[in-house]
Amino acid sequence: MIDKLRRHVPVLSWGRTYTREAFSNDMIAAVIVTIMLIPQSLAYAMLAGLPPEAGIYASILPIILYAIFGTSRALAVGPVAVVSLLTASAIGQVAEQGTAGYAVAALTLAFLSGAFLLLLGVLRLGFLANFLSHPVIAGFITASGLLIATSQLKHILGVDAHGHTLIEMVGSLIAHLGQVNAITLLIGVAATGFLFWVRKGLKPLLHRLGVPPKLADVATKAGPVAAVLVTTVLVWGLDLNGRGVRIVGAVPQSLPPLTLPSFAPDLLRALIMPAILISIIGFVESVSVAQTLAAKKRQRIDPDQELIGLGAANLGAAFTGGYPVTGGFARSVVNFDAGAETPAAGAYTAVGLAIAALALTPLVYFLPTATLAATIIVAVLSLVDFAILRHTWRYSKSDFVAVSATILLTLGLGVEIGVASGVVISVVLHLYKTSRPHVAEVGLVPGTQHFRNILRHDVQTDPSLVTLRVDESLYFVNARFLEDLVQNRVTEGCEIRHVVLMFSAVNAVDYSALESLEAINRRLGDMGVGLHLSEVKGPVMDRLGTSHLIGHLNGQVFLSQYDAWQALAPSARANPVAAQ
Amino acid sequence: MIDKLRRHVPVLSWGRTYTREAFSNDMIAAVIVTIMLIPQSLAYAMLAGLPPEAGIYASILPIILYAIFGTSRALAVGPVAVVSLLTASAIGQVAEQGTAGYAVAALTLAFLSGAFLLLLGVLRLGFLANFLSHPVIAGFITASGLLIATSQLKHILGVDAHGHTLIEMVGSLIAHLGQVNAITLLIGVAATGFLFWVRKGLKPLLHRLGVPPKLADVATKAGPVAAVLVTTVLVWGLDLNGRGVRIVGAVPQSLPPLTLPSFAPDLLRALIMPAILISIIGFVESVSVAQTLAAKKRQRIDPDQELIGLGAANLGAAFTGGYPVTGGFARSVVNFDAGAETPAAGAYTAVGLAIAALALTPLVYFLPTATLAATIIVAVLSLVDFAILRHTWRYSKSDFVAVSATILLTLGLGVEIGVASGVVISVVLHLYKTSRPHVAEVGLVPGTQHFRNILRHDVQTDPSLVTLRVDESLYFVNARFLEDLVQNRVTEGCEIRHVVLMFSAVNAVDYSALESLEAINRRLGDMGVGLHLSEVKGPVMDRLGTSHLIGHLNGQVFLSQYDAWQALAPSARANPVAAQ
To answer: Is A164 helix (H, G, I), strand (E, B) or coil?
Structure first.
């Protein structure tokens, strides 16, 4: 009972042995992460089309709930880029940005996501996330990164533009080029350039200057904070917002409010599919980050319990003015590198953010949105990686098809269609590959009891006997292939009296394949040809034994292929020594 | 060139060797089939909601085109029950029954079906039909049979009723019970009873009376013709249509007219999905019938060429006043039993039906629709077979889930949702089964070089070495499962220094699984544990060789598991004799 409770509420395990040293490590990590998270939270809320405070609210209660229910010791939960984009895309279809309905739709989306994740977790259905193959995820992340970066260009240019696909966005940007605000553009380009330089050039420089690597790391991660501070001061000092530079403006000074999602049936219906998509993508992202970090300390992650942790975090977001959240890569790595030892580090981060929400929001009044856009662009462009195209092309053409279709459809038709098509395409390609399994016609290697492919080896055969070795489990997608194959092979040779199917590589036979075997048996019977099976594995034979196939088999089941050869091949009987 | 032409136009092959004997056999078969087809064609047209002549027209040109392009020698193409139901369901959503738009929608549906089948055939994509597993087809046919029988009850009762799901139909029938026409009911019940008796009781009776089996067969199949003749004469003689019995009425006396499908974009868009569904279901039904009959004469069917034959037949239907057609089970068996030798029998049947369309339609003026409904009910109830539930329950629970979901959803939500859900459910269940492959931890059988499951055999192991044998190809659905499994196993034992993955049963490793192996390699590296592979098959090794995995492998690739044991297990090195 206690064990079960501990499994579902991991805090009960690590909380009991919490030491003073772990506390001080967690506190240090929390301070660093809090500082990073403030600009990131504001930026992702902007990306989701929500007011800036939503990003901070979405980082407070969700972090605490994840600390209680999650299993990763370093995962930092909150708004992330891809989920913010998916949120904007989903709720943009049901409400106008900036309205109260839009914020409520965001809460509802977080609620549905949370409920769906919890449901999956309780039913232990985490395996569903496996339907997203690595190439589909990689293609989707790359395309999303491009979409997100493009969507932020309007803030850099200081114009109004919109659109959900790459073409729509670029078209809208071009149409508004006349309205470009030069000062905004200057701030945006400078901030973007600075952040790129921090990412690529600062660390080697600090290294050459003899700064310790750990400190250099922190300095590199603090780039966005520096950009925020400098541009805010500039705008304030030079009164640039009076000259058309858009700023964040007033952000309420308050702890996260208590909010309620909407339960209007129409809204729930419109948001359920996007919520499922967001949940699964968020879960996949979060679990891969958590597993990577856990492995470094030889810890383990329970994916089904992660569903519960993330589900609780999203429900928390829904009731405290947030929007869908998940475990983010960048913030988790910062947390891990900063030395967080337990999920308590997340809780302290939450306290830090709560203080920021209460006290620090006036400081971001003059923060230009172009700076936030620059932090988003630099963050997401690091996700864009077309190398996946080259890697999959070299390794497997069908994976290449899946990844390129996902990229093109995501860019061309939007995130939801893109990722859904990716899943369908990769499933269909996989089924296609198994739909034409490798089947070898085999013969006896002289002087042995081994049977090998007649095309590759010099083997003994008999014109009245055909032996086919099937190198795949038999199920509905390849059942009819086997029917056709046997029928074609048998109609080729009029001397054939026996067909042996060698099942050494068949791990399963489903009901469709059973019916195909029965059809093969019936048809061969109509032709006066015997159907035999050899080397059937134990579990497969157990299952076939419950069917009528074995009873009606127009032939025998042989333990080994060699037994079948000896019993059925006239040449083996006529000249038994030659077959030894 | 000639060979290629012959493959795509099979008539060029069998036409050259057509003998007088084959001609006379084909003629006899054609006469028998023509007589059977007249009531069947009228009945199925009624089921599709079309005027009776559409059923006859749909049997003329399509039969001829299939005779030219199809590969089966006995298949009879024309309207069939399930496709008629699907047609009614599809075009009922875009047009009102009885309007000109309804007939045009039927032509358009046939056109789209034909075009889609041709496209699949030209692209050789016939394998797509394999996505319909046998249990899904069986469940769908059973549920459709029930739906069709229920839909015909209104003709037996003589009331107006409608609906696309079982509940809607039954509800509508109950609501109209007050309008029941007693004479219609009498005719309908009598005809239904008579036809059931013909099917079950006539043959044994004729057998006892000493009638030759072949003649008894024909007499049994002629039951519907007898019912049509008797009830028509009754209605005509007793003027029953004056007393409320609905009759077929005037059918134009004409050869099939030249018609054009509509190319209105809205209509095409609305009908494309139903057309795809009809094509695939029709193709599956047709190919299974054709293969069963071909096997009896050791002939072969080319499924891709069948797509072209059926595609041409449907295009023919679209331009000659018909509606979607396919190879029917009942009529094909009659054709085969009646001794048809070549597709020419189909062409003669077409001539017979053309004569009927020109000359005999006045004879069916007084035919009561209740009789047609009775022929449909008796025909489709023979398709209803709940035994599939029992069989799949006994053989495989996941097949049972697929079949029962298909039956329930088809009855409850309609044919299209039913069959589409069936496909999705069976694919997901299959993927689920392969998502948790059998993985055995193995050890050395003492005194041998064999490695077996440590849970089943008394084997040697070493605490620093874990060997996992994976019994399934690795791909995206089970890639993460393997990651979790390895990580969990390694975090269990602190002494573990080496993990060997034994790949003897792995036939393929896709890109996702490759990335999972790389992740496992990286994580084990972080823990200071080596990752090794053993017994990797040639093609898998070739592919892995193009990736970075082998280069970065935190361990070695061993040809045999025994090599791995000798190299990695300290106990093997310390005491080499014990390991022999």
So the answer is: coil
Nearest by Cα to A83 from A262, A329, A361: A329
Q: What is the model's pTM?
A: 0.75
pLDDT at B228: 87
Residue A302 has pLDDT above 60, yes or no: yes
Which amino acid makes up residue B292? T
* DSSP assignment string, B294-324: HHHTT----HHHHHHHHHHHHHHHHHTT---
Q: Quick check: B85 and B148 in contact, CB under 8 A?
A: yes
Chain A stretch 441-500, residues whose beta carbon is closer than 8 A to a beta carbon of chain B: 471-472, 475-481, 483-484, 487-488, 490-491
Of A130, A483, A487, Cβ closest to residue B480:
A130
Q: How far apart are the first and last CA of chain A?
A: 63
Which residues in chain A have their CB less than 8 angstroms from residue B487's CB? 291, 294-295, 300-301
A390 touches chain B (CB under 8 A): no
Interface test with A, best of B395, B488, B496 (most A CBs within 10 A): B395
| CB within 8 Å of chain B, chain A residues 60-89 | none
Specify which residues A441 forms β-bridges with: A468
Domain boundaries, chain A: 25-411, 439-574
Does the pLDDT value for residue A333 go beyond 80? Answer: no
Secondary structure tally for chain B: helices H, strands E? 26, 8
DSSP, collapsed to helix, strand or coil, labels residue B13 as helix
Q: What is the average pLDDT value for chain B, to the nearest integer? A: 85
Q: Return the pLDDT at B553.
A: 92
Q: How many CA atoms lie within 13 A of B376 on its CB side?
A: 33
For the residues B372-377, what does the mean pLDDT come to?
Answer: 87
pLDDT tens-digit series, residues B267-317: 888 899 889 989 988 998 888 788 777 767 767 778 888 999 999 999 999
Q: Which of B140, B456, B510 to mutate to test the interface with A (most CBs of A within 10 A)?
A: B510
Residue B340 has pLDDT above 60, yes or no: yes
Could you write out the DSSP letters of every residue in A311-354?
HHHHHHHHHTT----EE-HHHHHHHHHTT--STHHHHHHHHHHH
Cβ of residue A37 closer than 8 Å to a chain B Cβ: no
Residue B529 and residue B497 in contact, taking contact as beta carbons nearer than 8 Å: yes
Question: From residue A317, how far is each of A25, A61, A87, A269 by CA, in Å?
Answer: 27, 7, 13, 20
- Whether A521 has its CB under 8 Å from any CB of chain B: the answer is no
Three-state SS string across A255-311, please? CCCCCCCCCCHHHHHHHHHHHHHHHHHHHHHHHHHHHHHHHHCCCCCCHHHHHHHHH
DSSP, res A443: E
Residue B524 pLDDT > 80, yes or no? yes
Q: Which of B148, B462, B114 is nearest to B314 (CA)?
A: B114
* ipTM, 2 dp: 0.72
d(C-alpha A540, C-alpha B228), whole Å: 51
Chain A residue with CA closest to B289: the answer is: A519
Residue B131 or A390, more confident: A390
CATH label, A439-574, candidates 3.40.50.450, 3.30.450.20, 3.30.750.24, 3.50.50.60: 3.30.750.24
DSSP class of residue B357 equals I
pLDDT digits (tens, 9 = 90+) for B447-480: 877 788 888 788 888 888 999 988 888 988 888 8
Burial class (CB in 10 A: 0-12, 13-18, 19+), B266: exposed
